[in-house]
Amino acid sequence: MKIDTSIIKPNSIIELCVIPDVQVHLIMKEISQMYENNYFFDTIGNLKFVVDNVIEIYSIRKLIKELKKMKEYEDFVLFIDSITIIGDKRDGSSTVLSLLNELVIFNKATIILSNHYQYYKDLHKSCFHPRLGKTFGKLMTTRVFFQYKRNKLSYEVVDQQ
Known about the structure:
This protein has helices at residues 24-32, 60-69, 93-107; strands spanning 13-18, 38-42, 54-56, 77-81, 110-121, 126-130, 142-149, 152-160. The radius of gyration is 15 Å and the shape is globular. It has 3 helices and 8 strands. A hairpin with a 4-residue loop joins strand 5 (110-121) and strand 6 (126-130). The protein has a single domain, classed as 3-Layer(aba) Sandwich (Rossmann fold), CATH 3.40.50. 29% of the residues are buried. Strands 1, 2, 3, 4, 5, 6, 7 and 8 form an 8-stranded mixed β-sheet that branches. The chain starts with 12 loop residues before the first strand and ends with a strand. By secondary structure, it is of the alpha/beta class.
């Protein structure tokens, strides 16, 4: 699948919304080939198999530490798959959100991160719910939803500020 680079706005935060079974690490690899100065944070483990320069993140403390280190760089693309460890109302979440914002504003970073949606069903309704929670979405500049249609991966920009 070819991704249109116009959906990636420089110096912004782009959310790749993926439903179960969408291999977001391959999407990130494809997007990264369009840019230089790429860095990758991986909490799931699949990204390290398809790209170099991966930092593995398994705690909020480590994520905060690595985001602070990124302040040494300018004009880069940071891919994060996935930071579900910072969901709504978790200790350190506001620090992470502030650091991401600072990197965009002061370091000219473009941040592309995945938000894995899980299928939620109760007696009254069924829907996909973002594992990062609702608060995180307020930071996004662009939200791109990936899904399979007739066994073919497609995407749609569903929100752009």
